[in-house]
Design goal:
Blueprint: H1 14-28, E1 36-45, E2 64-73, E3 76-83, E4 89-91
Antiparallel strand pairs: 1-2, 2-3, 3-4
């Protein structure tokens, strides 16, 4: 059975959401159709780490427009962060940082 087309919330490009869902399916073994989108929003990241800083790395200290996608596959929660350009990147739970407060974007 072919996968259902992904309908993204207005603020998240459909190709980003599709890429995140497909990656989550590979990581968990779940079917894309069984993965729940719990958060999909345009945000402003507080720096170049886009909410997923790696230990020992330095990042630009400028606001970065982007997206946050949180998926649920069974009991697993998977976080994906992206800038306004480029694909979503999986962010392990122990590195997830919040978007800049009060800087959520309405649409990009």
């Amino acid at each position: 059975m072919p996968a259902q087309p992904v309908v993204a919330p207005a603020s998240v490009p459909p190709d980003l959401l599709t890429a995140a869902l497909e990656d989550a399916a590979k990581r968990t073994g779940a079917k894309v159709a069984d993965i729940e989108v719990t958060v999909a929003e345009a945000v402003t990241w507080p720096d170049g780490s886009m909410g997923c800083p790696q230990p020992g790395m330095m990042y630009t200290q400028a606001l970065v427009p982007g997206y946050r996608i949180v998926l649920r596959a069974g009991k697993q929660i998977l976080n994906y962060h992206a800038g306004a350009r480029g694909g979503p990147n999986f962010c392990p739970a122990d590195r997830v940082a919040s978007p800049a407060p009060g800087r959520r974007e309405e649409a990009m």
